[in-house]
Design brief:
The chain is an alpha/beta fold and 262 residues long. It has a single domain (5-258), classed as 3-Layer(aba) Sandwich (Rossmann fold). The chain has helices at 41-56, 75-84, 107-121, 140-148, 202-208, 218-221, 249-258, and strands at residues 5-10, 13-15, 37-39, 61-70, 88-93, 125-129, 151-161, 166-173, 176-183, 186-190, 213-216. Strand 8 (166-173) and strand 9 form a beta hairpin. Helix 2 (75-84) crosses helix 5 (202-208) and helix 3 (107-121) packs across helix 4 (140-148). Its cofactor is FAD; AMP.
Length: 262
Amino acid sequence: MPPRLNIVVPVKRVIDYAIKPRVNAAKNIVETNGVKFSLNPFCEIAVEEAVRLRESNKDLVESITLVSAGSAKAQDALRSGLAMGADKAALIECPGIDDSKLLSLEPLAVAKLLKAYVDKSGANLVIMGKQAIDDDANQTGQMLAGLLNWSQATNASKVDVAEDGTVSVTREVDGGSETLAAKLPMVITTDLRLNVPRYTKLQDIMKAKKKKTDKLSPADLGVDITPRLETVSLADPPKRVGGAKVDSVDSLISKLKEVGAI
């Protein structure tokens, strides 16, 4: 029998994937007023995988804990994950972090907060989305594994836990797939093909309100979250222009020269 899994799943509140982000008038932040937010899709996949591991073997998983860092509004994302089947949650509330302000948490700061929380929780497995759809950094999982000095497997499309406690992770690579195996403790980041998250029922949403959510601060964890980067400006991507047909290779070359492509 493998060691029981104490799973931590970091989650993030982001602008809903169906919403087209817009840069504000000052060109320094993405507009958030009146915008719908939801649980990051990759984080949702991570929560689903943790719950499925328990459903496949009730004796395998001891607990599933969600953790999020940010403003008090991040509780919405935690409640979504609790409704999917997680046991409890923790919010690392960061002063000054808000959707309407320029101050934001950088991947290294998040990794340090998670490292401190994982050490405190006694977890032996972290399952998290490979990236958040707001900044697409794809850095926090790798940084966390490095800080913890744990094994890591990124972009997981399949996860298996063997009887001896070995965790096998299949991931897609150029030209096929590869399978990595490592002993616990371990950090896994999830890809889109790992699973399809369940639809949460109303009764599950109501039950989630009764589940425990702890509140911490960066100071409680001894972590400095002072930003190291400054956003100078933001701009919408240039609008795509229509194509044009040419009737010969010579015309094509002439057009390419006109636009400076060759």
